[in-house]
Design a protein that fits this description.
- This protein has 2 domains: 178 residues, 3-Layer(aba) Sandwich (Rossmann fold); 203 residues, 3-Layer(aba) Sandwich (Rossmann fold).
- It contains 13 helices and 22 strands.
- The longest helix is centred in the C-terminal third of the chain and has 16 residues.
- Bound molecules: cytidine-5'-triphosphate.
- The site of cytidine-5'-triphosphate has 15 residues, from helix 11 and strand 19.
């Protein structure tokens, strides 16, 4: 979620400043561009060199500094404009009070005063300072002004006392930032159901009929929907492990019949159903309870049609937007268009194996999206991740 975001980290002078090394690493690992502004006293607790090395950027602490004999003005307004997010961690009682009063006697405070982006603060103080009435009032005042306060945690404090006042752990800070970004995003409050991966149709306890779907496109759509604030359920056939955030519900199924049941169970309350699964069109009429032994030179197994999950659900839709996928082996556009119509879909994402880099087993995809209102959008070859992002942008533009 933080990929490509400009995160400005303000470090103030408390012992918890050492933890910002981990915070910077986490932010960088998430793909954020990180710049650090330190107050002068924070340099006693963590070195600018460490934070500069980890953030891969110069660290700033004064309005003016000297480089190669030249004076350089660190323009607080430019820093503030650069930032998509400002995080002050640790936040001392002193800086907290100045933020509330509007005092502006260092680069960090001037940058804060000039910022228009979301601001997060992670206070860190000793027991009695954190419990002090002025701290409580100042934090309440910042909250009232829209600053996101990440409460201090309980535990051993540098003074030897035990109680509330420890800066939240770096992971907790990052998690809180994620939660907030999701709450401000496009799909917040929306429910999304996605089917993904192949199905397996067994004909005895050790053999099955399946296809080459990896599920990646569906999982990327799920991840992006989650990042955009949606509540997401993925009903997935058997795929190699793909990491999803814990809050994305993943329901594992094997057969088309199981996928049908699970998708059906969750369809009613959702806003979007995206059917990206490669569901088997046929299943075996008979499943042998024991391993089938070879006997004759030829073996005839009878297949019968599975339920068309997408068609069935689309016929029941109320508020749901229902989106199908059509993977073809040729470039005959009448096929996806026929599916769009016959299954009463709101949109169909069509791709063809005749395009290099599209379809199963690749990290990339290329698609044309046909909408029920007869508009269409070309999505050029790109990673499945960025395609998921592009698809949600188009769906939101169309329907939100
Ligand atoms: N689908 C489904 N249930 C099935 C089969 C497919 O929900 N039993 C969904 C897929 O998830 C996809 C779309 O339907 O969104 C694909 O359309 P479909 O007409 O079934 O295409 P194919 O299975 O590729 O079949 P064909 O081209 O032979 O019609």
């Amino acid at each position: 979620m933080l990929a490509g975001k400009n995160v400005l980290l303000g470090v103030t002078g408390g012992i918890a400043a050492y933890k910002t090394t981990f915070l910077v690493r986490l932010l960088i690992q998430q793909g954020a561009n990180v710049k650090v502004i330190m107050t002068l006293s924070s340099k006693e607790f963590v070195t600018p060199l460490t934070l500069s090395t980890l953030s891969q950027n110069p660290v700033y602490f004064d309005f003016i500094d000297e480089k190669d004999g030249e004076l350089r003005w660190n323009n607080h307004v430019e820093h503030a404009k650069w930032a998509d997010l400002l995080i002050l961690a640790p936040l001392t009682s002193n800086t907290l009070a100045k933020m509330v009063s509007g005092a502006c006697d260092n680069l960090l405070l001037a940058t804060y005063m000039s910022s228009n982006c979301p601001v997060f603060v992670a206070p860190a103080m000793d027991l009695d300072m954190y419990a002090h009435q002025s701290t409580k009032q100042n934090l309440a005042e910042l909250t009232k002004r829209g600053v996101h306060v990440i409460q201090a945690e309980s535990g051993f404090l540098a003074s030897g006392l035990e109680g509330e006042g420890r800066m939240a752990e770096p992971q907790t800070i990052v998690d809180r930032v994620h939660t907030q970004l999701r709450a401000e995003a496009l799909l917040y409050g929306k429910k999304v159901l996605i089917s993904a991966g192949p199905t397996r149709e067994a004909f005895d306890p050790v053999r099955f009929l399946s296809n080459y779907s990896t599920g990646l496109m569906g999982y990327e759509l799920a991840l992006r929907a989650y990042e955009l604030g949606a509540e997401v359920i993925v009903v997935s056939g058997p795929v190699e492990p793909i990491t999803l955030p814990h809050s994305v519900r993943r329901i594992a199924v094997e057969s088309a019949e199981q996928m049908y049941t699970q998708v059906m169970n969750h369809f009613d309350g959702v806003d979007f159903f995206i059917s990206s699964a490669a569901v088997a069109d046929y299943t075996f009429s008979e499943v042998h309870p024991q391993k089938l032994k070879k006997e004759e030179n030829t073996l005839v197994l009878t297949l019968q049609r599975t339920k068309d999950i997408l068609r069935e659900l689309s016929s029941r839709k109320k508020q749901q937007r229902v989106i199908g996928f059509a993977l073809e082996t040729d470039s005959d556009l009448s096929k996806p268009l026929a599916k769009l119509q016959s299954k009463s879909l709101d949109a169909i994402v069509y791709n063809t194996l005749s395009d290099a880099g599209a379809g199963f087993g690749t990290d990339t995809n290329k698609a044309t999206v046909f909408f029920a209102d007869q508009s269409q959008i070309e999505i050029p070859l790109q990673s499945k991740r960025s395609m998921a992002s592009a698809l949600w942008t188009h769906f939101s533009d169309k329907w939100l």
